[in-house]
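Question (not urgent): is this output format expected?
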Amino acid sequence: MTTIHFLWMGTIVAIAACVQGTLGIGFALVVAPVLAVLNPQLLPVSLLLLMVPLNLFTLLREHHAFDWRGAGWITLGRAVGTLAGAVILIRLTPHGLNLVVGVATIAVAIVTMAAPAFSPDRKAFVGVGLLTGISETATGIGGPPLALAYQHHRPEVLRSTVAGCFLLGELLSIGVLAILGRATSQQALSAALLLPFLAIGGLVSSFARRWVNARTLRAIVILFAVISGAFLIARG
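Got this back:
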């Protein structure tokens, strides 16, 4: 990667970190397309490695709002989904996987737009964890199911809980990909070099998050899900 490409990538990482720290979602959606163009070999491992410190920061910042019950069931589903995602990554072509996940994401977003306010139960949380594990392990993008599950919660609950679920899930995904030989030292080095840009974006988000209310956040969540689904379909 040239110096110009690196600085461009660093700027995108900083912007994406600010978006994620403010809304609780969006980092992968912003960074993944740029990585896919500049250096697709870095996906999904470098993306997952960058998200670990970002989500740890968000979780520690708003740990008081963390939903332990929901996160527990999501993590259960996520563990199974991570293994399934690894199997799918091996057996299904990237194009086919992107199409399936993209269509499913948009369908869920459309349904939730018309649905009344709801509070997910145990089965819904496990299902969300399963979908997230499959999607993030295979593509690096796993935010839409989690965000849609928490769209009717307070912004700080969404941010902290999604960050906590992401954090554990990312470690699981990285571990599985490493076992499968899909993680390299170059991917880790590239992520490490981008950490200063990540820190800048995360710190800025600590101020920007105060401007987001629950109604605005729900609209952004649904829009985010539709855009991410369209992006995956386009990749497919």
